[in-house]
Amino acid sequence: MLAAVSLCALAVTAASAEVDWKVVSERTLTDEPLDLVVSEDGQTLFILLPGKVLLYSVQQNRATDSIPVDGSFDRIAVFPGNNAFAVSSSKTKALKLIAFEVSREIDVADHPFKGPKDAPVTIAVFSDYQ
């Protein structure tokens, strides 16, 4: 039995693999990142900086927004399937749950509309007749 284990170990060490890699994007942040986590869909990085959480869009390759938090928070975790995350502080033993909604700007120029052009609210309707 010992010989069989030794042969298996030799077979594993004899195999080799190569990994091809490249840097896709590189950014310099204005503050030291304390922690970061990726959204469930892989499209957003939540970067915890002193006093704020930076939302970084992987698709747009830029920071899209920030959410202010207390400067004592030093850890972050994202809730899968929800627009929510938790920040915690090892110093103050505090925990904060934060829910957020993402708003999107919709360009309605050159599209049919009803009502005044300077209305404070725009309701966009998307439909498909198929």
Describe, in plain words, how this protein is organized in 3D.
With 130 residues, this protein is mainly β. It has a domain of 73 residues: Thrombin, subunit H (Beta Barrel). The protein has one helix and seven strands; from the N terminus they run αβββββββ. It has a four-stranded antiparallel β-sheet, with no helix packed on it. Strands 5-6-7 form a three-stranded antiparallel β-sheet, with no helix packed on it. Strand 2 and strand 3 form a beta hairpin. The N and C termini lie far apart (66 Å).
Structural class category: mainly beta
Radius of gyration: 24 Å
Q: End-to-end span in angstroms?
A: 66 Å
Average of pLDDT: 84
CATH class of the domain at 27-99: Mainly Beta
**Shape estimate:** extended
Strand order within the widest beta sheet: 1-2-3-4
Q: Within the CATH hierarchy, at the fold level, what is the topology of the domain at 27-99?
A: Thrombin, subunit H
Q: Helicity, in percent?
A: 10-25%
pLDDT below 50 for ≥5 consecutive residues: which ranges? 1-8
Strand content: 25-35%
| Structure summary, number of beta strands | 7
SSE pattern, N- to C-terminal: HEEEEEEE
Biggest β-sheet strands, sense, barrel: 4 strands, antiparallel
